[in-house]
Amino acid sequence: MRYVVCPLMVAFFVAIGSCGRSNLGKCPGSSPLVKCTELTADEKIRQALDQQDLATAQTLLAAAIADEPDNYERYPLLAAVYAGLSGFDLLAIASASSSPGAGGSIMDTMDAFLPSPEGLTQEEFRAKIDLMGQAITIIEALPAAFRATSGTDKFAASAVQQLGIYQTAQASMYMKLFTTDFNTGLPDLTQAANLTAEDAAAIMGLLANAAAGGGAFADIATSTLASINSLGGTDRDNLANFLGS
Amino acid sequence: MFTLFLSASLNTFAAARDLSPVYEETFDIAAGGASLTRASRYGAAIANPALLPFSGSFHRWLGSEFSLHINTESVAMAKTLLPGASSANASGSSFVDHVFQSPFLAGTQTSLAYLNAFGGIGFFSKFEVDLEAQEYGPTGLPTILLNGKSYTGATVSAATRVPFMPLSLGITAKYLMMSEPAISIDLADPNAIAQYQDPSALSALVNQSHGIGYDLGALLFIQGPHMDWRWALKIDDVAGTTISGGDAVDDFKQVLSTGASVTFHTGKDAIHIAIDRRDLQNAYATPAFKSTRAGVKVLLRGYIGIAAGYYDGYPSYGTELDLIFLKIGAASYRRERTNSPGLSARNVYVMNLATGF
Fold first, then answer.
1. Entry pTM
2. CB pairs under 8 A between A and B
3. Contact B341/A157, CB-based, under 8 Å?
4. Which SS3 state, helix, strand or coil, does residue B266 take?
């Protein structure tokens, strides 16, 4: 009997040991007994997000939203992906929420989350600002009920949070454009003189929206606006003075 | 300092039901969970009560068991949670940092049971918590996902052989008290997460639901001098088990499963090769890699057991030492939390201690 049992036993354990850590159900299938299981579109998106493969996640999410524009749970994900592609460090928010002394100016606060302009051209940094703008656009495309603290959708309050975060982040990134010498990559407050009225309006608009939205950064957006407006001139002059000080 | 308010984005919801058993023996897990045709100790009453008459003697098991489940990535962290560990390492922020690096899974399972060839009674408790952090959570923001399982129950089993036929039938009635909290927390709050390190905090998080259900089993057992064949049919939760009271928990659906095995044996050695196919009517839309369970148990001289198999589509293995009144077991397996292979797997170590005979 042992001549039958022993080879069977050895063969089975060798088979188990040689199969590594892969799942039998993965496609393409590796077992005649187990039909392989294809990932759904949302599962592929989740896989890409967990692997920090933001480019793939962006492609998959954009396609999924185009296929099912009424599936609003994907919008905040795509917004987060755009924010991530812009260099925004979402994870830093988690630690910042519990680290005392994270206050200070808006740019001091946001520096922990935002990409540094160091080593980038002005055009490259503007591209990152545009990506953050895409994140805002995606959240704003949600129906009102899906981005409201009183909304019935379970993700609505989070969408409000995201919108405020991204608006404040984009405002802060805009400000970096006028406090950085992109030739040297170093802080240079004299760059504030290059601020145009159009840029000033964009920054003030973002701060006003963030302050009014009641999101996570509403307080700092409100206090920043108050500091800027207290200077008493035009938006452009007030902001230039604020950035240059 | 700005404050990220969490209260608006903390969601509690019921976890989706799947085929995970409410109680499973360590050695059976090691053998891929293919337990319909052979199960260890109290696991027989849960896996298939029709196994009871074929134990070879009137008495089958009287004793208690304890097992500890922990994912391999969290062994070091778990040590810091033990009484007497350094409080610096066990701080909430350190725990959250760990969860952002890799998931945390820990659980315990205990039982006290008496079983003989005609039935028995048993009590069990199972608790498990799984924490996972996602930088891009379901809402787009960093999220901590907490899934808990708390099952406490009692079973009464009855079984009999059908006269003049190599067939046995069995029934297990079960009373369950359970909760399955599933919580997502946007933007990690170390203080909030730290409280979930304490199992009692999670138990208090949701109210227990309860229900009574029945499992039926049949076993065809063709015995030879050196080779046995077994074929099993099992109906879990006949007509469905309604879970009521407490927080919302899904009911258990009726599940039909079958299993087959062959055992080669001598006087004291045996090799048992088994395959189960669970959820034949696809009540839970279970993919094949989760509904197919296969494995082998090798029993040497009656006191050493080695097992290997496929559990949730991943290799599993383990061993057990039978010291008459004390049984010590260990197993390693991977569990897939979702119905998608490779999406959210947990590498789990199990250690088991049983006292009884």
1. 0.80
2. 170
3. no
4. coil
